[in-house]
Amino acid sequence: MTQLLISVKNVEESQVARYAGVDLIDLKDPTVGALGALDIDTVRQIVNEVNGSALVSATVGEGHATIEALTDDIALYASLGVDIVKIAVSELFQQADFFTKIMQLTSQGIKVVTVFFADNTLDFGLIPLLQKSGCYGAMLDTQLKQSSLLAVQPIETLHSFVSVCAENKLVSGLAGSVNKQHVGALKGLNPGFIGMRGGVCRQHNRTSELVYAQITEVKAMLLNCNTTSD
User: Is 219 one of the catalytic residues?
Assistant: First the structure.
């Protein structure tokens, strides 16, 4: 069953998402890029507020200069109590010891989700390596937010991504300027979750505030799609 991920930027938004019945509350700062990291204190407060009532994921930002800088941040955010840590595909993935270093974290029980940016060159050959290194899942998102995921990549590519993830026993996620009009098409691909931010914000502005009614509308649509497909 496809679940709903909503990205939040503060404690108040985490409360809105929780009361709206969101399955996965995703912590990130939309003002500093596609995967901007929230500050440590805010992450800690949100984890305490959610208190196990929903899964919580957190991004660690982009642009890490070294594998060690990235893995240190993964370990740090995991230590705050989030359930899932999200990282972006980058040049670091090409370094010889990258997946070994990731496996050292996943072997400790840290759930890592790797984010592929749909508006960059996609290498789904990395997905089996993610599985071998113990990653929990993979996500397809957009780095530039001017266009939706479905405008950036054809539905066949999204289907291929979800299928390769399933073959490698990874949870898959689809996101990227997604709104309610996209729910039916994306749900038909049977991803593990569909992610939104701007599509459920005031005036569809991802740096604005979440709107409770818009989240519950999408949640109801997704539940209806799940029931219909079941």
Answer: no
